[in-house]
Amino acid sequence: MPNDGDTRDEDVVSNVDETSQDKPTADSEGMDMTGDVGAQQEDAGCLDGIVEGTDGDAEVQIAELELDVANLSDQLLRKAADFDNYRKRMLREKEEFGAYANRELLLDIVTIIDDFERAIRSADESEDFNAFHDGIVLIEKQFTSMLERKWKLARFESVGEEFDPQKHEAMMTEERTDHDQSMVLEDFQKGYMLHDRVLRPSKVKVSMPVEGGDGNGNSENTSAE
């Protein structure tokens, strides 16, 4: 049977063993610290790699954006130059159109001038006034027909028509008792229509309706004696 002294010695030894097991040794602490430092260095290296990768991507993006800006600037300059050339070309074509817009009409007119020259030359050679007159009448008919057919320029008659201030310009008036409205009595200068518009009004003599008369259209003197 063990005595009390032996029991106390065993308890002390047991406590010492437990304490030695719980307390870390210097070697284990050194290994743990070394491991922590290595892990920290590894993490720092990873972060540096991420930062370097991010910086590299940013530089690439900046370079791409700068290239895009340069391309857009070049396109803008080209478009501006193209528009300026287009504007100049339009102005030049407009000037040319204005200068040669009547080319076809002028060609028709010089053809009529040729006819006049032939008529004059024929009259000089034959000294036949009637033939010259007939030639001039023929040229006038050809001229007016060409203007109406090709250029829609038509001469209109006015005598016997009701006076229309849009078509007629009254140069003279005459009092008439046989008219109940103003009528064109005489045509001093022909009027012309271009398509459906009056190009030039005719210059005319117009009747002025009055009451009383001798029955022949002439007004009577109705003043009191």
Structure annotation, total helices: 4
Global shape: elongated
Q: For the terminal residues, how far apart are their CA atoms?
A: 190 Å
Briefly note the CATH topology name of the largest domain.
Answer: Nucleotide Exchange Factor Grpe, Chain A, domain 2
The topology string of helices and strands comes to HHHHEEEEEE
Which regions are unreliable across 5 or more consecutive residues at pLDDT < 50? 23-31, 220-225
Residue-averaged pLDDT: 80
* Helix content estimate: 55-70%
DSSP, total strands: 6
Structural class: alpha+beta
Q: What is the CATH superfamily classification of the largest domain? A: Head domain of nucleotide exchange factor GrpE
CATH architecture of the largest domain: Roll
Describe the strand arrangement of the main beta sheet, using strand numbers: 1-4-5
Radius of gyration: 58 Å
What does the largest sheet look like?
3 strands, antiparallel
Q: Domains counted in the coordinates: how many?
A: 3
Name of the CATH class of the largest domain: Mainly Beta
Strand content: 15-25%
